[in-house]
Amino acid sequence: MKLLVAIISPKKLEQVKEALWEAGIRGVTVSEASGYGYQKVQVDSVKSSDYRVQYQPRVRLEMALPDAEVEKAVDLVLDTARTGRIGDGKIFVLPLEDAVRVRTGERGESAL
Ligand SMILES: Nc1ncnc2c1ncn2[C@@H]1O[C@H](COP(=O)(O)OP(=O)(O)OP(=O)(O)O)[C@@H](O)[C@H]1O
Ligand SMILES: [Mg+2]
Predict the structure, then answer these.
(1) CB count, 10 Å around CB of 74?
(2) 39: pLDDT confidence band, cut at 50, 70 and 90?
(3) Alpha carbon of 60 to ligand 1 centroid (Å)
(4) Among 7, 54, 75, 100, which residue's Cβ finds the most Cβ atoms within 10 Å?
(5) Is 20 exposed, middle or buried (0-12, 13-18, 19+ CB in 10 A)?
(6) Nearest 5°: phi and psi at 75?
(7) Of all atoms in ligand 1, which is nearest to the CA of residue 39?
(8) Which long-range contacts (CB under 8 A, 24 or more apart) does 35-40 make?
(9) Please, what is the Cα angle at 107 between 7 and 60, to 5 degrees?
C-alpha cells in the first residue's frame, strides 16, 4: 500500500475529486493547506531587506491506495490538475505500513 499526498490548487479540487470518484477511487481526505514551492519569495518593495514569503492557498489530498492503483491515481491527478504553469502542485508517494477499518477491525488492503 502507498499513501499518495497531492498538494494542488483549490481551483482544481472539484475536478480532481470528480475524476477520482469516477475512476473508482474511494476514500480521500481533503485539508486546507498553504505553502510555497520553488518560487517562495515575493519581493514586496524595492528595498531588498523588505521581502515576505508568500504562502499560497492549497489543498492537500491524502489517499491510501493498493500498490496497483497508485499509477492510475497519479495520472489522474496529473491529467486534471495540470495547467502547465508554475504552482500546479506536487504529488508525494509514501510507503504505507498498515490500515485499519475501525468499525470492523479489518487490516491492510481490505481496510481501504
Ligand atoms: N518539496 C516540497 N515539500 C513539501 N511541500 C512542497 C514541496 N514543494 C512544493 N510543496 C507544496 O506544494 C505546493 C505547490 O508547489 P509548486 O507547484 O509551486 O512546486 P514547485 O516545485 O515550485 O513547481 P513549479 O515550478 O511548477 O511551481 C506548495 O505551495 C507547497 O505547499
Ligand atoms: Mg512553485
Answers:
(1) 16
(2) confident
(3) 12
(4) 7
(5) buried
(6) -60, -40
(7) 22
(8) 35/7, 37/86, 37/87, 37/90, 38/86, 39/86, 39/87
(9) 10
Cα(112)–Cα(104) distance, rounded to whole angstroms? 12
Closest CA to 32 of 10, 11, 12, 14: 10
Question: How many angstroms separate the alpha carbon of residue 81 from the centre of ligand 1?
Answer: 13
Q: Is 60 in the pocket of ligand 1 (CB under 6 A)?
A: no
Predicted local confidence at residue 2, as pLDDT: 98
* Orientation angle between helical segments 13-22 and 67-81, nearest 10 degrees: 140
